Amino acid sequence: MVLSMPAPRLTLALSGRSPDNWRWRGTLQAGALGPVQLNGRWDGARLRGQAWWPKQPLRVFVGIRRRQGEFYAQSAFSASADQGFIAGGHGVLTGGDLWYGNSRLVGVRLSLSYRLAQSRWQLGIRQPAALHIDEIISSIALRELDTGLKGFYPFDDDHPLTLTHMTLKTLGGQVSLTPLRLPQHAPAVLKVQGVEMSELITALKPKQFAMSGQVSGELPLLLDDASQLIPCGWIASDNLMTLRLDPQFADALAARDFATAADVDWLRYMEISRLRATLNLRRAGDLTLDANIAGTGAHASARRAVRLNYSHQENIWQLWRSLRFGGRVEQLLEKQAAAEAPAEGEP
What we know:
Elements: E1 9-18, E2 21-30, E3 33-42, E4 46-57, E5 68-80, E6 84-100, E7 103-117, E8 120-123, E9 129-137, E10 142-153, E11 161-170, E12 173-177, E13 180-182, E14 188-196, H1 197-204, E15 209-212, E16 214-221, E17 228-237, E18 241-245, H2 247-256, H3 261-265, E19 269-282, E20 286-299, E21 302-315, H4 316-326, H5 328-340
Antiparallel strand pairs: 1-2, 2-3, 3-4, 4-5, 5-6, 6-7, 7-8, 7-9, 8-10, 9-10, 10-11, 11-12, 11-13, 12-14, 14-16, 15-18, 16-17, 17-19, 18-19, 19-20, 20-21
């Protein structure tokens, strides 16, 4: 999403008794953006002012796709030789429906209060800035995203920036994040609860196997670490799971080694009573996963206890790019249709 803005036009009117005591009023407009109403006064030492941005539809922002939703804001500011420029206010976005990259964001609501002093932004003055998105339509759909942000930017140890919470629903389960403080001195924990593996497998589209059942886990996040992104994460089964190998894939495994062909037969269909996996993810995207699986294999009307130790390595950034490529043509066509269709309220 790239926003472009026409050249702004500022109109001012001044009135007062002397150069050290006057008031000002005006408007600021850039194409369909605004007009932002301005007023204030000068007392000889400090310039004070207020600005009101009236409620406007998002379609006035050139470059936004699906242009539904409304935005409004207000601010107060002052400037003086001893304290510099100080500003504070809030902005609100409601009913947003727009594109971000190749993902469509539906039902976007944002409430943001801020303060600017000494070239440092403070976000979430009385309560955290709040963002809610009803649905993110992408390779893996996300629903009911709620998050809050509070703190300073630029941030440091004396002026931290904190993602106070994050929750969302996806793949039949829920994902949440414990507070994430920047600079980071301890991991924030991404908690996964009741994610349905069949929905994940449907999204990933592997040809070799199918799996069903729910899993939960905890993934510590280290955003400031130079090499590790997720150290010592874990995932475990919540209930009985099933694993079914693709017949051609199973036949190919059995053909590679005659000695293991019989073992592969017990994995063609397996009921998993216990699954636990540990994983580590490096910043470059290299994932290492070690899993311990116990269950019962079924073959030719017979059943046998099976224990399986499995290790897997893959670069997930490359995997994610391949997933996004799979639906990119469809998304581009939908975005183009949205750009050509009239926005809500237009003829």
